[in-house]
Amino acid sequence: MVAEADIMCKQSIPSTTSAAAALDVQYHVCVAKDQNFQIDVNVKNGSSPSTPVFREVRVTESVSADISRFESVVSCSETIKSAVVESSPVKFVPSIRSGSYADIGKRDSMEDEHIQIDDLSAHLGSLFKCPTPSAFYAVFDGHGGPEAAAYIKKNAMKLFFEDAELPETSAIDDAFLQELENSHRKAFLMADLALADEHSVSCTCGTTALTALVLGSRLLVANAGDCRAVLCRKGVAVDMSQDHRPSYLPERMRVEKLGGYIDDGYLRYLDGSLSITRALGDWEMKFPIESASPLIAEPDVQQEVLTKDDEFLIIGCDGIWDVMSSQYAVSLVRRVLRRHNDPQQSAQELVKEALRLHSSDNVTVIVICLSSPDPPESCPPQRRRFRCASLSEDARSRLKSLLEGN
């Protein structure tokens, strides 16, 4: 819509008379198509032409309606523009910091291992162009000895990043994430094969593995075994992994289809027994390489787009989850974070609680904060309590004499 203004001024001042000057000003403004309104301004008698005084303004009704419609259009346009701006998605950028804690528990030896890298880009250098922020975490729960878990931890960066077929582009889109997921699956399988060839690791030794990779606002969790990752979303626990145990019906059906069998909650095959259905290593219980086996190392992978509602992520070995639910752990960590704002202390408190609940395994956990820290809760000042004490008869008499000045 275009507005035009045409201003015509006429001034007539007689030179032989003191009569009032006359000034006629006509405004022609076109609003919309072929519409105009007129404003007549007259100067009061006796006023100087240079300082006109407005006495009367007349606007035709048709033009007033057009102006109203014009204002409505402008207002509607501004409303639509505001709505578009408000509905535009705001990309969430995690503010990452983490803390971890591990305890041998009631076991004779420590077979858990973990990895905690808050800045993956700085750790890898030019090897992999990571978006900001980027982080990598992992927990490994060994069995049959600590060697398998220790070997995977030592070689994790080589297996998952250096030797992995990582996407060449750094654009975080669906194609990139699919390639990254495939790369992680291959890394688990390559780690399993590496254990088969590693002479320092017995064929009776194995480990579960869970990794969590944060790239920008994307979270990728890969799991083989019964470690668990749990996301806290506005105080509600969201499981990011599935425990691979014989009690999980899809796993039981897969195992039995491939010739394995479940007895008393254990996968039993080739003179061995495990309480899990997926693991790295344990080659005495696996068919020859490239053969389908009931016990596998292939991970389940889950992806999630993080938002401002996602407060933190917990990843831990089964020593935690044997004695508490995902929601119990999330509520405990959230309470400690609100009090102390320290992920390290939150991880420690979670491990202590698992031990208090009589966990019989090694206990390892990592707490990864994703949102900006909230101010710690302030404890309200406690009211001083006074206790009334009873006085003996002798004390009463002494107090009375003192008050009376005797």
From TrEMBL:
Pfam families per the UniProt record, alphabetical: PP2C (PF00481)
Domain of life: Eukaryota
PROSITE patterns xref list: PPM_1 (PS01032), PPM_2 (PS51746)
A GO CC annotation given for this chain: cytoplasm
InterPro entries: PP2C, PP2C_BS, PPM-type-like_dom_sf, PPM-type_phosphatase-like_dom
Domain PPM-type phosphatase: 97-370
Enzyme class: hydrolase
GO MF term list: metal ion binding; protein serine/threonine phosphatase activity
Keywords: Hydrolase, Magnesium, Manganese, Metal-binding, Protein phosphatase
Required cofactor names: Mg(2+); Mn(2+)
PANTHER family assigned to the protein according to its UniProt record, in alphabetical order: PROTEIN PHOSPHATASE 2C (PTHR13832), PROTEIN PHOSPHATASE 2C 13-RELATED (PTHR13832:SF620)
Family: Belongs to the PP2C family.
Listed name of the protein: protein-serine/threonine phosphatase
Species in which this protein is naturally found: Acer saccharum (Sugar maple)
